[in-house]
Amino acid sequence: MIEKRIKFTSVNEIKEFVNFTMSQPFDIDLIAGRYVADAKSILSVFGLDLDSEVTLGIHASEDEAKDFLGKISNYLA
Asked: Which of 22, 48, 54, 70 is the most buried (most CB within 10 A)?
């Protein structure tokens, strides 16, 4: 699993991020403390405390996630 720290600055960023993750073939999680949310579910994501950085968990190899990571680079902390 690949782990990266990410930070959102607006609700629109979160919506765009979730819409983009839904098109990915691998599982993606957002981890805030002891809570883990499915990054492809807007309800799960909004259940987290998004005022601070969260951990992005990508269940794929570096090669599989390369394009995805490039497209979400503006969210990386």
From this structure: 54
